[in-house]
Design a protein that fits this description.
Number of domains: 3
Strand content: 35-45%
Mean pLDDT: 80
Oligomer: single chain
Number of helices: 2
Low-confidence stretches: 1-41, 45-74, 339-358
Distance between the termini: 47 Å
Helix content: under 10%
Amino acid sequence: MGGKRTASHLLWHRAAVFDGACLVVFLAACNFPSAAGNAPVLSTTHTVTAGRVEPELRTQAAATDEGGSGFIPTMRETIVHQRIPGEPGSALYYVGDYSSKASAVYKAASGGDYYLTNLFERPFTAEAMDYLPEIDILRADIAKDGTWLYATIRLEEAPAAGAEAWYGVEVDTDLDGRGDYLIRTAAPAGMEWTTDSVQIWEDGNGDVGGTKPLRTETGWEGDGYEKLAFDGGRGADPDSAWARTAPGNPKYVQLAFLQSAVENDMAFLWSAWAEKGEGDTGGFDYNDLHTPAEAGSSMKGHAEYPLKALAEVDNTCRMSVGFDLTGSEPGACPVEQPTPTPTLTATATRTKTPTRTQNPLHIQSFTIAWTPPTISGQCPYHANLQFTITATGTGYVYWDLFYSINGGTFDFVTDGGEGFTNGGTASFYYGKIIEFTQTIRARAHITDPIGLWANEATLTATCT
């Protein structure tokens, strides 16, 4: 899947290579003010040198293709824009994310990083763990009107114009955990909408994430987002995607893309991304590229610390558009749930493996508890969260863990599983290194074979 990804800083806009020749585009200014209502027809001209062009990216240059060979002689390419985004308006959907600014002095993230499920809080360099606030996402939101979807990514610090970094959203239209579109941009150069350095990548062969989307499976050999459908105004629709720095706030990177660019599907999952360097569109999902030990960890106290092969990247959990998130969707952000009752059962749409249908697994109880629930003393301190699951039958239980720290929102921490043969009670622990005075509320959710929440457990820690 694109080979091993390292923390190297590659140039954002690379030349695409085809059969030994390349297409080099010198981008002229393509910035236009926001327009509402009927926008004027605008155009920009680019120089295209001799080379071969992907069929999906051919524009007016196709008219000069001699003999249909795909070879385009040097020429001037004019891109005409019919539609320009307006103002996003109020956010309809948003997702919060961890900030690593406060914990950067410790050269570590405060939470939110879990490699096994493709959720990263890694705004640090490899090994040295130097903090990169310009790719540290604080929040992302989406707004829409009758034509456009607007994504705003709020960062800890503003990126420099033209910085070697990219910002974007990943869209899952069929809600299967496998991303279908990746809309991204380099750090925008100004506060006016532009198509320069904006791209839309598609997964044409449906292999993003391998056979287990979002779950790590080291060694998977696929090509991720292999189709560049839009690149700086070149594509089937030159107006497909735009970017800018939000007016009045350089810490906000904004993307606007046509609803038709994502199949006019107004019920989808999305997550926000920020990354130094060029990134690896062919490497999605990133947690399939390396073992956890090779990738490293941003969390002190973890055996994999510090970051190694996978560094300088931050993303969010997935939020919905067009429907209410339940929390059970693949990669979904945690959702507050009422205290479960014994009447909860599996939904009719849940499928079971043959082994479960022969001797199905039933969960009788699920509880969590900090041991001890209150600590006071010299830190760092190792606290344990005890899981207790009682079941009948044979099968495997998958669970997710969420934290709310000092009254914040519940954020995904980790996942895991436990096997049962002929039922029984399993009691196991999840460790947490306490380095700061804080109150941690924990929630745990069984995702399979039945959606079931445990009780809420609170840990009060006072570091002296």
